[in-house]
Amino acid sequence: MKTFKKCSLVLRNVLSMWCNVELGIRDAVME
Length: 31
What we know:
The chain is mainly α. The chain is 94% helix and 0% strand. The chain has 1 helix and no strands.
């Protein structure tokens, strides 16, 4: 269970990071 929790945490971090990157790219394209 512990490893699964850790995995989901990492996945969530990667997802949020990717979302931030995508938002940044979108902002750069919009300007």
